[in-house]
Amino acid sequence: MIMIKKLAVLTLTLAAALVAAGVGMTRADPNGSITLPPPDNTFKDGPNAALAQAKCTICHSADYVYTQPPLTKAQWTAEVTKMQKAYGAPIADADIPLLVDYLMSQNGKQS
């Protein structure tokens, strides 16, 4: 019985947090589910954009790149290499400089 009360309190707390964050419940859905907007999972035009779309969105959204602070070429190279080596992203060694060029065009910082 105590667990049920704790679950009810947790559910109400979560609902209150969603309302405070501006996430509303849909009235049309009797189950009270929430509807979130779809993520924009498309990279903007630029050199090698199709390569970035094919390689990067396997693991994360395109928005992830745009929410990062601007990085230098060396920093982007380290990030792409980390994705390849540490996380196993299917990126060929020859594609790393092409991806870095694209990332620099989108969110690069001059060193």
Which labels suit this protein?
single chain, 5 helices, mainly alpha, Cytochrome Bc1 Complex, Chain D, domain 2, 111 residues
Task: Specify the CATH homologous superfamily of the largest domain.
Answer: Cytochrome c-like domain
Classified by CATH, the class of the largest domain is: Mainly Alpha
Helix share of residues?
40-55%
Enumerate how many helices there are, as a single number: 5
- Following the backbone from N to C, one meets helices and strands in this order, namely HHHHH
Report the CATH architecture of the largest domain.
Answer: Orthogonal Bundle
Kindly give the count of domains: 2
Mean pLDDT: 81
Strand content: under 5%
Biggest sheet overview: none
Low-pLDDT segments: none
**CATH fold call of the largest domain:** Cytochrome Bc1 Complex, Chain D, domain 2
Given the helix and strand composition, which structural class is it? mainly alpha
Distance between the termini: 61 Å
Number of strands: 0
- Give Rg in angstroms: 20 Å
Which descriptor suits the 3D outline?
elongated
Descriptive notes:
The protein is mainly α. Helix content is 50%, strand content 0%. It contains 5 helices and no strands. Helix 4 (73-85) crosses helix 5 (96-107). The chain is elongated, with a radius of gyration of 20 Å. The mean pLDDT is 81.
Which SSEs are present, and which pair or pack?
Layout: H1 2-20, H2 49-56, H3 63-66, H4 73-85, H5 96-107
